[in-house]
Amino acid sequence: MNCLVVVSQPWTVESGFITPTFKVKRNRIEEAYGAQYERWERAGQTVVWA
Asked: What is the rounded end-to-end Cα distance, in angstroms, of the chain?
């Protein structure tokens, strides 16, 4: 991916995006945002606000 995506949803233990030891749950990120990856990259922006 050639951009940085800033999302408004907090990545917390409660939301399921990180573990209690603050490790990122990549599979959860794929589930939540995977369908948007190509669109974000095609946008041609360095920073994408989602």
From this structure: 15
